[in-house]
Specification:
- It contains 16 helices and no strands.
- The protein is an all-alpha fold.
- It has one domain.
- The longest helix is centred in the first third of the chain and has 47 residues.
Length: about 450
């Protein structure tokens, strides 16, 4: 038993270090991308339009093929691998990919045909008409990338279920490279539309880099969707509450946030560019959060899914406690140092050309408010996966609803004092409370 524990822990640590390394490379490339975008466009109404144009495509991807299926998919695919072997797992994988692509295509067509309905009523009602039309055009381009991601996002889950982490960890870097090409090559002739074309190129590269992994693990595509297949039905049952969970998370992170921000601009309480500043601040939080929290949680999920399937509850508890302890010990000092160094880092990295000192001030304020939630966001990466490994998707769903209510309430309450920065601080507070509640529930259930 001691040998098994050591082998399990060593496997998770090794995978975490590998994922963290490549996530780190991805974040460096992404930092270069953000620097190029900022210096080329600045923080203004045009970049605001591009950023909010991602909201519905990102929501669609997240609900159908991204985190919704990714986290729900891996435990079930791991179970299929354990019980039916690789051929049975790939049959299930093919059916889920086929279903995800068809559903994504149908929703993409609806959004592409009626973008103004969503933009004027939900996303940015405070934007002027000209800016809303720009959002609509950019959104249509982003939907093409979403169709590609509907496949690529699930490929990541399929490879991770096979304990292969290298190519899925490399894929985001290639996505960022595509966006850099979009700005530096297409942007000269197409302006902000060049950046949208870069997103499409990045999506193609994101999928392409993972294809060798499918070949290595003898993937065979099955051109069918069988709703009577037990694996597919189990996936849909688990996915339903996960979709709702992700819906509320995306409402919190982007749609509700940008809706409130556009109204602040419309009322004169803020200036154009604050949505882009919030995106930059959120990205700065994601630098350490991805390398620490997401890396550990991504490596952890297949292993804890195996332990749950095999009924090894004591080993699961030890592994989760160790992972959470390491996470806290790393995250707290990183959060403090990041908060203190943000002003210097933003000025050194981003300021220049179209990115002004005023832009820097907005990003610094947003980044520091987001950084207060680093521990909460990192903890949530692991705690959420602990629920999904036990195939409990309902508890995270109810907590996501609570988080949305907290976020909107705190944003509106703090806005008179902090302006647009209230949106970043409300995010940190709401998600930290959610993470603590998850820890409490896991402890009460004796999972921790």
């Amino acid at each position: 038993m001691l040998l098994i524990r050591r082998l399990t822990s060593n496997r998770v640590i090794s995978a975490s270090m590998l994922i963290a390394f490549f996530f780190g490379i991805d974040k460096i490339v992404a930092l270069v991308r953000q620097q190029i975008v900022g210096r080329y466009f600045g923080l203004n109404a045009t970049l605001d339009a591009y950023n909010v144009a991602n909201n519905l495509p990102d929501l669609l991807f997240g609900l159908i093929s991204g985190s919704a299926l990714g986290i729900a998919f891996i435990p079930i695919l791991t179970e299929a691998l354990d019980k039916e072997g690789r051929s049975g797992a790939w049959k299930l994988f093919s059916q889920v990919v086929n279903l995800a692509f068809v559903v994504t295509a149908l929703f993409s067509i609806v959004i592409a045909l009626f973008p103004m309905f969503f933009i004027q009523r939900v996303i940015t009602p405070g934007f002027p008409l000209e800016q809303q039309l720009l959002v609509a055009n950019l959104m249509r381009l982003n939907l093409i990338a979403t169709l590609i991601f509907s496949i690529s996002g699930l490929v990541m889950g399929g490879l991770q279920a096979n304990q292969h982490f290298l190519l899925p960890a490399l894929a985001p870097t290639f996505y960022n490279i595509g966006q850099i090409v979009g700005v530096m090559v297409f942007g000269k002739a197409l302006g902000i539309y060049g950046l949208a074309c870069g997103v499409i190129l990045g999506a193609v590269l994101h999928l392409g880099i993972q294809i060798p992994g499918l070949i290595r693990y003898e993937f065979k595509w099955t051109p069918r969707i069988d709703f009577n297949d037990p694996g597919v039905r189990k996936m849909l049952r688990l996915m339903a509450p996960r979709v709702l969970t992700l819906f509320f998370i995306y409402l919190t992170l982007s749609i509700a946030r940008d809706n409130i921000a556009s109204r602040l601009i419309q009322s004169g309480q803020a200036v154009p560019g604050i949505i882009s500043a919030l995106d930059y601040g959120w990205y700065l939080l994601q630098l350490p959060e991805t390398i620490i929290g997401t890396a550990i949680a991504t490596a952890l999920l297949p292993t804890i899914s195996e332990l749950v399937t095999r009924g090894e509850h004591l080993e699961l508890q030890r592994l989760l406690r160790r992972a959470l302890g390491i996470l806290v010990l790393i995250t707290l000092p990183v959060a403090l140092v990041s908060y203190l160094l943000l002003p210097l880092a933003v000025k050194l990295v981003f300021e220049g050309r179209a990115f002004t000192a005023e832009n820097s001030a907005l990003v610094i304020l947003a980044g520091q408010m987001f950084m207060l939630g680093l521990l909460g966001h990192s903890l949530k990466e692991i705690t959420a996966r602990a629920f999904y490994a036990h195939q409990d998707a309902y508890t995270p769903m109810f907590l996501a609803i609570l988080t949305l209510v907290l976020f909107v309430s705190l944003s509106l309450a703090l806005a008179p004092l902090l302006g647009f920065a209230s949106l970043a601080l409300a995010n940190s507070l709401a998600f930290t409370i959610e993470a603590l509640l998850m820890l409490f529930i896991l402890y009460r259930r004796k999972i921790l």
